[in-house]
Each structure stands twice: as C-alpha cells, then as structure tokens.
C-alpha cells in the first residue's frame, strides 16, 4: 500500500465528523496554525502604506556604508582618506555625512519653518493675552478691596458718631443741659427722624461726607468739655491724664 500524504485541506478531510472529545491529529493543528500566521502576515503587509514601504527601503539603503564602487568615495581614498576620519586637511571636519531631510508632504520649501513661526507667534499672543487678563483681574480685585475698605470705614464712622451722640446726650443731661450745643450732637427722636427722612435721602452723599466731620467735631467737644474718649469709654481726671493714657483721637489709634 502506497504511503501517500493526505491533503488535510481537501473537502473529504474537512467534512469529517470531528465530534467533541475526539482527539484531533497534530498535523492538522499545525496546518491550521501555519495558515493563520500566513493570513496575519499577508494582512499586515497589505496594511503598510506605500509611504511606509518607501521609508523602510530608504532607511535600509542609507544605513549601508559607501564602498569602493562609489566614485566620490574612491576619489577620497586615493587622496589618503580613511573611513571614520574627519574631513579636511586639519582633520577638524565632520565625520558623519550631512543628514538627509526628506519631505514626504506636498508642501513647498520653507513651509515647515513658516508653520513653526506661526505656532510660536500664536503661543506668544496667547501668553500676552493671559498676562493682560491677570493684570485686569488683579486691578479688579484691588478695586473691590478698596471699595470694601471704604464701605467698612463709612460704617465704622456711622457707628462711632451714634456712640458719640449717646455719650454727649448723657453727659450734657447730667450737667443739666436741656438742649445740645448743636442740633445733631444728640440722637434724634423718632419724630425728628421721620421728619428729616426725605431730606436725608436727597442728600445722602453729602451726609456721608459730613459724618466724618461731625464725628471729629463731636469727639473734640467730648474731650475738651468732659475729658471723655468714646473709644476708651473713659472720662479722665484732667487734661494731662487724657494726653498720657489715651492712645489718640481716632478709631485707628485705638486698634
């Protein structure tokens, strides 16, 4: 009986009844594996683009050193040049060849430099914009802080003025005075507040400016007449005692 190798890819063999659990021939497995590898290799080779193939071929040829068959290299050797030596009579020239820059795109010469310069300009403009933005934010923050500080100072002046009016009314009453030295030295009653409400609304800005002057005038009156400081909350014995122990004539002096 002739020993003829079976064709494992024939219909007669493939259509055999291979049931689960029955051993499969080793050679059949190897055949299937080889076919899978061939298919994968073919698929990978098809996936490579023409540019990639050209690049691989170019790199392969560039990596090959020049031989005697090259006329230019042969002329250098006749003049005493040896492979690996620097060029030039003094031996300070280049050793490696000038690199070859291949442009694979369809853009003209200088296009890459132009794109690079545009990118740098764009980055510089972005940095300038960010710098300006930070400066504006800083100025806005400082302006907000200044306004907030001014508002707080105005509220503090208003509180100190009311405190001074209460103290002045109490001290004047104890002294036997029935009316204040100035109308605004004492706190107004509810009736007087309602009467002057419309007038205060019309002259709100002017009142805010006058409150500081009123506070200075009233605290000066309290210090001279009663030796009293509203921030210390103390009536001193004499002028020398007031000058020595009171920190000053303003709210900030007492902080």
Characterization of the model:
With 255 residues, this protein is mainly α. It has a domain at 152-189 and 205-253. Helix content is 60%, strand content 2%. The protein has 9 helices and 2 strands, in the order ααααααααββα. The chain has a two-stranded antiparallel sheet. The longest helix is centred in the middle third of the chain and has 65 residues, at 111-175. The mean pLDDT is 77.
Spell out the blueprint of helices and strands.
Elements: H1 11-14, H2 26-47, H3 50-62, H4 71-78, H5 111-175, H6 190-195, H7 197-202, H8 204-226, E1 228-229, E2 234-235, H9 239-245
Antiparallel strand pairs: 1-2
InterPro entries: DUF4187, G_patch_dom, GPATCH11
Pfam families: DUF4187, G-patch
Keywords: Coiled coil
H/E element sequence: HHHHHHHHEEH
Gap from first CA to last CA: 120 Å
Strand order of the largest sheet: 1-2
* Estimated radius of gyration: 50 Å
Spans of at least 5 consecutive residues whose pLDDT stays below 50 are: none
Protein structure class? mainly alpha
Shape designation: elongated
- Quickly count the helices: 9
How much of the sequence lies in strands comes to under 5%
* Overall mean pLDDT: 77
Count the beta strands. 2
Largest sheet descriptor: 2 strands, antiparallel
Helix content: 55-70%
GO molecular function, one term: nucleic acid binding
Domain G-patch: 68-114
Biased composition (Acidic residues): 194-209
Coiled coil: 109-136
């Amino acid at each position: 009986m002739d020993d003829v190798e079976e064709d494992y890819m024939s219909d007669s063999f493939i259509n055999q009844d291979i049931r689960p659990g029955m051993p499969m021939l080793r050679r059949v497995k190897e055949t299937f594996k080889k076919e899978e590898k061939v298919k994968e290799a073919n698929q990978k080779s098809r996936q490579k683009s023409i540019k990639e193939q050209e690049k691989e071929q170019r790199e392969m040829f560039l990596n090959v050193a020049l031989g005697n068959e090259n006329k230019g290299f042969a002329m250098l050797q006749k003049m005493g040049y040896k492979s690996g030596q620097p060029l030039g009579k003094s031996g300070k020239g280049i050793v490696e060849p000038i690199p070859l820059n291949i442009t694979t795109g369809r853009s003209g010469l200088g296009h890459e430099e132009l794109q690079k310069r545009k990118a740098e300009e764009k980055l510089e403009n972005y940095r300038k914009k960010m710098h300006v933005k930070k400066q504006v934010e800083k100025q806005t923050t400082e302006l907000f802080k200044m306004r907030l500080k001014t508002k707080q100072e105005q509220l503090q002046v208003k509180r100190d003025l009311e405190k001074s009016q209460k103290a002045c009314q109490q001290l004047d009453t104890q002294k036997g005075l029935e009316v204040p030295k100035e109308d605004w030295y004492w706190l107004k009653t509810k009736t007087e507040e309602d009467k002057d409400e419309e007038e205060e609304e019309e002259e709100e800005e002017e009142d805010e400016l006058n409150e500081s002057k009123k506070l200075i005038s009233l605290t000066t009156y309290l210090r001279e007449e009663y030796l009293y400081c509203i921030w210390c909350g103390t009536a001193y014995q004499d002028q020398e005692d007031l000058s020595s122990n009171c920190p000053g004539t303003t709210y900030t002096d007492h902080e």
